[in-house]
Design brief:
Blueprint lengths: L10 H19 L17 E6 L3 H10 L5 E7 L3 H21 L2
Length: 103
């Protein structure tokens, strides 16, 4: 049985070529906010939080996190709908104020 020698590139050469090209164009594909452009906090420096129970203690925790720019509340859950909605309104207002202030 004879083997044919292919003139195509090897897998290793292909990966090396594609990897080099990807590195060359990556600054054009990544948004500046990911890199901390214009004073924005990059995702790698943020602490994301899910709140379970936003009664008295949970509401106090939300208030305590208000001045901390590296904390971000992403989810709120409470067995009482009115508490969850009130906390959601508070958190949305908190982030709206940060955007207006340019933080």
């Amino acid at each position: 049985m004879t083997t044919q020698k292919s003139s195509s590139i090897t897998r290793r050469q292909f990966v090396g070529t594609v990897g080099t090209g990807a590195l060359a164009i990556s600054p054009f594909l990544v948004p500046g906010s990911v890199l901390g452009k214009d004073g924005q906090l990059p995702p790698s420096e943020r602490i994301t939080i899910g709140m379970f129970g936003v009664g008295n203690r949970g509401s106090s925790s939300i208030s305590a996190m208000r001045p901390l720019p590296d904390h971000q509340i992403l989810a709120i859950a409470d067995c009482r709908r009115e508490r969850a909605e009130r906390a959601q309104k508070t958190v949305n207002g908190m982030y709206a104020n940060r955007i207006e202030a340019g933080e």
